[in-house]
Amino acid sequence: MKYLLVLLVLAVGWHMWRSQRVKRTPPPPPKKGLAKPEPMVHCAHCGVHLPQSDAIRYQGAHYCSQAHLAQAVPPGKS
């Protein structure tokens, strides 16, 4: 019975120490607003979706990389 009482006293003490410790921590910095969503486009070669600002546009089509653009455009036309 006395071990249960000691355990209870330790648990209450730990809880009090923990609650005091949490109160002293500084509040987190305020979160900045989320960025505005960007339109998504798909690569005309492989179909992967990517933000329009990252895409390479050529003659109305979007490509995810220079390699896919080069594969889609015949040599000598650019």
Secondary-structure map:
Blueprint: H1 2-24, E1 40-42, E2 49-51, E3 56-58, E4 61-63, H2 66-72
Antiparallel strand pairs: 1-2, 3-4
Key attributes of the depicted protein:
single chain, alpha+beta, 78 residues, two-stranded antiparallel sheet, two-stranded antiparallel ribbon
Can you walk me through this structure?
The protein is of the alpha+beta class and 78 residues long. The chain has a domain at 40-72. Helix content is 38%, strand content 15%. It contains 2 helices and 4 strands. Strand 1 (40-42) and strand 2 form a beta hairpin. The N and C termini lie far apart (87 Å).
Number of helices: 2
Kindly estimate the percentage of residues that lie in beta strands according to DSSP. 15-25%
* Strand order within the widest beta sheet: 1-2
Rg result: 30 Å
**Helical coverage, percent range:** 25-40%
Q: How far is the first residue's CA from the last residue's CA?
A: 87 Å
Q: Which word captures the global form?
A: rod-shaped
Largest sheet: 2 strands, antiparallel
What is the number of strand segments?
Answer: 4
Class from secondary-structure proportions: alpha+beta
**Element-level helix/strand string:** HEEEEH
Low confidence ranges? none
- Mean pLDDT over the residues: 86
